[in-house]
Amino acid sequence: MKIRLFLLLFLISPLLQAEIFKWVDDEGNVHFSDQNQKGSRPVELTPPTIIGTTAVPSSQPQAATPQTEQKSVVVYDSVEIVKPTNDESLRLDGDGVVNVTIESSPGLASGNSYRLSMNGDVIENSISTGQVPLKNVDRGSHTLKVEIIDKAGNSLISSEEIIFHVLRVANAPRPTPR
After folding, report:
1. Is residue 95 one of the residues assigned to a domain?
2. Global confidence as pTM
3. What is the arithmetic mean of pLDDT over 74-89?
4. Phi, psi at 80, each rounded to 5°
5. Residue 72 has what pLDDT?
6. Could you tell me if 36 and 93 lie in one domain?
7. What is the CATH number of the domain that holds 148?
8. What's the mean pLDDT in 157-176?
9. CA distance 130 to 148
10. Which residues contact 20 (CB under 8 A, 6 or more apart)?
């Protein structure tokens, strides 16, 4: 019985390997078929690419392992304060707003945020955008530094500290009438 089945499969296998033929009609259209046509040529096919899987996904959610947690951490190349520039002098009036622009490479990942420090003190925590307006900045020289922090508040990367100078218009006292 096994020998008959083997012989039957051996005889049928050439029939299962169909050829593909290609030809161009009078109007210039390209056609493909499994049947030989007048003026057609056989097409040589490359073997198919087979990608095997190594594991079957389970329907159960897997617990996070230290290895999978490390893969989800973004590694930052840089973070910097683009505006104001280092050693820049700013003329401010009114409420003394200094617009700070922060850039990082790669961009800020989900769950991470910026922490901005001025003169060594944290002034803004959990910043999710690269634009931060600082209000009522006094005249004088100030330092700025930014860090990228994770959800737990751990610093992932920090910028170089920059210095900027604020010049504010002051009203001169009026002379007292005599």
Report:
1. yes
2. 0.54
3. 90
4. -150, 160
5. 55
6. no
7. 2.60.40.10
8. 80
9. 11
10. 32, 33, 34, 42, 43, 45
Structural tokens at position 149: 């922090």
Strands (E), 106-158: 113-118, 121-127, 131-134, 140-149, 155-158
Asked if the bond preceding 106 is cis, omega within 30° of 0, the reply is yes
> What are the CB-based long-range contacts (under 8 Å, 24+) for 114-120?
114/79, 114/146, 114/147, 114/148, 114/149, 115/146, 115/147, 115/148, 115/149, 115/153, 115/155, 116/144, 116/145, 116/146, 117/144, 117/145, 117/146, 117/147, 118/142, 118/143, 118/144, 119/143
Q: What is the mean pLDDT of residues 22-46?
A: 84
Query: Domain of 125?
Result: 76-168
CA-CA-CA-CA torsion sign (34, 40, 44, 49): negative
Q: Closest Cα to residue 73, out of 7, 149, 142, 1?
A: 149
**DSSP 8-class letter at 77:** S
37 in a structural domain: yes
In the block, which residue shows the tokens 């005249």?
A: 139
CA distance 130 to 81: 9
Q: Is the pLDDT reported for residue 161 higher than 90?
A: yes
The tokens of 35 are what? 């049947």
Integer Cα distance of 136 and 92 in angstroms = 10
| Residue 114 CB burial class (10 angstroms; 0-12, 13-18, ≥19) | buried
